[in-house]
């Protein structure tokens, strides 16, 4: 399904219905596990070993990620423009395709942890894309309110901390614990690339702010971009 078709198919009522059904399915799964098992440990083991239960719980984690993403989006970006929504859908689609190709290479390492790491990576990528898009749009706006700068500084700082934490976590798993090396090489490189791209976005934001503060056009700006 191409990104444009996916955008037309996904509507707000369908998202609400999907979220409600996923929540009830997850609650029912957990309820059945604790009903059929005599104690907490046995129920947790059952949930962890059953593919169907894991699927329901991962699906519920997706719903939580969607809700959290929506809240963070409203907090840091407000309402998204049509072009930004199209950008996110298009890049998410290609990111998903490239990850599926990577799964074929690291299929022996495919597990729940792979799915969670991919979800985390895609979640962060979306906010990196939106941040870069907003920074690029500064010079196209006749006036930039202070709330915009407060939001940009907040989201860039948050993403930088998150990137550093995930890079450190990935390097620890890769170099110290040496678990699932093939998979962790993929995600470590992705998190490092995200950090580098974020540094580029921060640099562009600083240059744009300097350019906006000048009374005359900054002709030497192209030397730094």
TrEMBL record:
Keyword Cell division: no
Cellular location(s): Membrane
Predominant cellular place of this UniProt entry's protein: membrane
Record-level Gene Ontology MF annotations: ubiquitin protein ligase activity; zinc ion binding
TM spans (from-to): 15-34, 54-76, 112-132, 153-175, 181-207
Signal peptide positions (record): none
Pathway in which this enzyme or protein is active: Protein modification; protein ubiquitination
Entry GO terms, CC: endomembrane system
Domain E3 ubiquitin-protein ligase synoviolin-like TPR repeats: 15-225
Gene Ontology BP annotations: ERAD pathway; proteasome-mediated ubiquitin-dependent protein catabolic process
Keywords: Membrane, Metal-binding, Transferase, Transmembrane, Transmembrane helix, Zinc, Zinc-finger
UniProt keyword annotation of Transcription regulation present: no
Name assigned to this protein: E3 ubiquitin-protein ligase synoviolin-like TPR repeats domain-containing protein
Organism: Sporisorium scitamineum
Record lineage: Eukaryota, Fungi, Dikarya, Basidiomycota, Ustilaginomycotina
């Amino acid at each position: 399904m191409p990104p444009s078709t996916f955008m037309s198919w996904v509507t707000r009522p369908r998202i609400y219905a999907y979220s409600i059904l996923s929540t009830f399915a997850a609650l029912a799964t957990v309820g059945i596990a604790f009903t059929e098992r005599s104690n907490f440990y046995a129920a947790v083991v059952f949930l962890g070993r059953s593919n169907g239960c894991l699927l329901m719980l991962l699906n519920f984690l997706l719903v939580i990620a969607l809700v959290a993403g929506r809240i963070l989006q409203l907090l840091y970006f407000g309402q998204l423009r049509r072009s930004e929504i199209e950008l996110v859908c298009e890049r998410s689609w290609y990111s998903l395709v490239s990850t599926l190709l990577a799964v074929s290479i690291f299929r022996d390492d495919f597990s729940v942890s792979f799915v969670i790491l991919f979800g985390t990576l895609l979640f962060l990528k979306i906010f990196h894309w939106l941040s870069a898009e907003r920074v690029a749009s500064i010079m196209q706006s006749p006036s930039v309110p202070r709330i915009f700068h407060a939001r940009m500084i907040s989201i860039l700082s948050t993403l930088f901390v998150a990137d550093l934490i995930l890079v450190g976590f990935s390097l620890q798993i890769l170099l110290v614990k040496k678990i699932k090396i093939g998979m962790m090489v993929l995600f470590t490189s992705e998190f490092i690339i995200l950090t580098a791209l974020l540094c580029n976005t921060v640099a562009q934001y600083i240059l744009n702010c300097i350019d906006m503060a000048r009374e005359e056009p900054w002709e030497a700006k192209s030397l730094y971009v």
